[in-house]
Write a structure and sequence with these properties.
single chain, mainly alpha, 4 helices, 50% helix, globular, Antitoxin Xre/MbcA/ParS-like toxin-binding domain-containing protein
Length: 78
Amino acid sequence: MLVFPTFQVAADDTLLPGLGRIVATLARGTADSWQIALWMRTSSDQLHGRTPHEALQQGRSDAVERLAAQTATRWRSH
């Protein structure tokens, strides 16, 4: 049995489109997989109060990718 964190899965039990690119982008800023998981479930003003997970479910991968790039840059600077 494979187990995936819920932030990776869409309502139809498939992996969210664009998730691989987003996680790879975030990984340039941190090696902490828990930090990435928490980021996926934290609401953002840049996503109109939605979490990255919710935005991906709504097909807004471009907005999530931009936010991920900004976040990775910020994480690297700390």
